[in-house]
Amino acid sequence: MTLRVRIEFAEGVPEERVLEGEDLMVGRLSTAGLVIAHPSVSRHHARLSARNNAWWIEALSATNPTLLNDTAISGIERLAPGDVLKIGTCAVHVLGAPEAARPAASGSPAIDDGQAARLAILNEVHRALATAIALPQLLDLILERCFSVLAPEEGVVLLRTAAGSLEPVATRRRIGPPGPVDVSRRLIDEVAGKGKPALVMDAALDERLAGSESIIVSGVRSVVAAPLVDGDAALGLIVLASRAGVRKFTEHDLDLLVSLASAASLRVRNVALAEEAAERRVLERELAIAHDIQMSMLPKPMPDRPEVCVAAALKPARSVGGDLYDYWVSGDRLWFIVADVAGKGVGAALYMAVVKALFRACAYGDAKVSDVAARINREIARDNDSMLFITAMLGTLVLATGDVTMVDAGHNPAVVLAPDGSVTHPTIPKSVALGVIEDFEFSEGRFQLPPRTTLVLYTDGATDARNMAGQMLGADRLLAVIHHADPAPAALVTSVTAMIQAFESGAPQEDDITVLAIRRP
Amino acid sequence: MTISDAHEGGVIVVSPRGRIDSTTSALLDRHLQGLAAAGQTRVVVDFTGVDYISSAGLRVLLALAKRGRDHKGRVALFGMNDSVRQVFELAGFVALFTIAPTRAEAVQSAMA
To answer: What are the CA-CA distances from residue A161 to residues A158, A183, A235, A278, A378 (Å)?
Structure first.
């Protein structure tokens, strides 16, 4: 039977072709009955078949749909003159032929037995796909159906693992229990590597097998194999094999296997996506736990004391972050630190925990602030190949006198809010950030925090916060807010963080933000 | 961020443009590591096109300076705007780098 078509490409000159036959593969392979040599077309894209005095179209690619008059086709559709098929980006116009006239009465086409069995098996697999069966059952079903229609002696499905190798995930034997089925590496490369189905009628003569031991150890001579393809990536392959004397596969068997494989491909990909989503949910739960642990490492709010009030807030940009604050009263003084590990996320959070532990281990009583900084620095700098560093402002406040001693290890300047609302930066000598130079000697700065005065420390997530327009908050705006804020630490911290949030106005927070305020009543 | 290279004598001048933040710093890091792998140890980083650098960006430059020390190389920086220079100052990193006033002086310093 003949069929005349006009192929229109997205670019270039249309081509008119007259097709002849009963069963034509449509694809970009040169062996196809209707070759459309265009990159948007799959190798085995669709099938044209002539039955009952009409032409029929069947989509074969799981990922690259075939459209009939702009509607994706799922089963088999009858073609009529004037119909337009969309194959990849190419339009195939059905021009018709005398033999291809649509029959007056509609109804099921008369299909020969082989074709009917083929449709039945495809329908069954497609139905199975529609239900939520798991991948192993689907693969077993496909093998089982292959066995009942194609009658191989052995069958195996191989899938690509996360590591990239192809491993058998389902096997079946006509006689005996399922067991390993050996498939030659060359055949796997040919089918999965190049995405080409293979029909090997005589293993000994086929160059694809030359030099390989055998496809199947028990001297099998006839093999059909089809790739499981997702887009251009091979997910795996289905291989069926028999001794040639028992069962010889044909091109029709290969075509059926290709159809089955395309149905399986879609499911494999969906299962992979579902598993990925499940893994992501696990990861999100773990990050939520890590977030809670990290937040629990921060000091509990300290009740206001007659000598000092402290409040702080930390808002990580992701679930966990590299910012840190800590404070505690030891002996006659308050120890405090605000630190920022370069980077953010899990890596930074691990270092944040290390710094916190080191600070708690070293900072107590009347230890020297510069010694505490040097100790933390040494521990971090040792074997620091990743050049991770930490900026920190740390110090002590003597409760009775208000004497502050601080080390500025590469951090943003501290701010002092005086009772008259003026804001100033106390003079602290600049030291290099922690973790950079192992034997660095840190310098201390000293000043007195008078009563009714508030010391504010923060991380650069505050000054570098950006709005939708990409503008940064900047130190000046931060100082202005501190200038106008209620000087009580809890209120001040709240108004600073609220102002940053308002400034960002929905833009994603890019860095962890920490604010710590210490006030002498 | 875009990165371009220019060769001047035995020195390579790397010119990143845009923001060097936690997202883009990995790109610069890979670029600089690629130069190191190719045996290029005399490196000048041109900051004239850099609007912003975050701590993640500083880390990339620290790694560059460390590779320079480990392999007897030379690293010099030039062309920072005020806000970028302030980030170096805040972190206490000014003393760790050769920061030259001009391109010619940076190249000269990396050649020495």
So the answer is: 9, 17, 9, 17, 44
